[in-house]
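#struct-help
A.M.: can someone run this one for me? Single chain, 255 residues.
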Amino acid sequence: MATKTGLKGKVAIVTASTAGIGFAIAKRLAQDGAHVVISSRKKQKVDAAVQELKAEGLNVSGIVCHVGKAEDRKKLIEQTVKEQGGLDIFVSNAAVNPTMGPILETTESVWDKIFDTNLKANFFLIKDAAEQIEKRGGGSIIQVSSIGGFIGDEFLGAYAVSKTAMIGLTKALVPQLASMNIRINTICPGVIKTRFSEALWKSPMAEEMEKTTIPMGRFGVSEDCAGAVSFFVSDDASYITGENMVIAGGVKSRL
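D.P.: on it. Structure tokens below:
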């Protein structure tokens, strides 16, 4: 894709952006003209992602951030503002799902880990990012939830519930963020072919799933999500906030 200039002069942070959906979003926003800050837990992966995108002529930098650590979250926002002069766009993509199985078998430690990362850390990153985005006159925040937040899943139970909570968080944040001239929207991907979801799209039933439950007849790819984020943070979406967009090839969803 040719580089665009719609986001020229804008600064964006994308969490968990060294692979999969996060990497595709970071790449697309950089192609749209933004300076994008890549972040993830491991320095080696951050450096590799930055190098790959810089080799394509894109304007990116990297900061190591474990979103579960308050000091890392603070550093991510503060260092970005210090080095890039401010923040306009924040994309919250980091999430964990350490287990699969019947929801009533979820242990307290697993439940805590999922909600500490997927909801608590996500909220406090948004809180700190919003403060800086307001200083720039406003901007956009995107959460990456899941279609599981709409339809639930017996074997991804706690993860799905955390994603439902993110959908609710979007709605709850709209009034205050709107007063700060900040729009917030959430994408809710279906099965996207990434390492994070390998257990689904590489399963023995994957082909049947594609043919019988997805009207478009295929699993998604990370670029499908990146395009939606590109739209949401652009001026074309200037009157859209508080929305939760399902990106799932036509799979039915309702909350």
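A.M.: thanks! Residues 146 and 188 are 4 Å apart (CA to CA).
D.P.: also worth noting: The longest helix spans residues 108-135.
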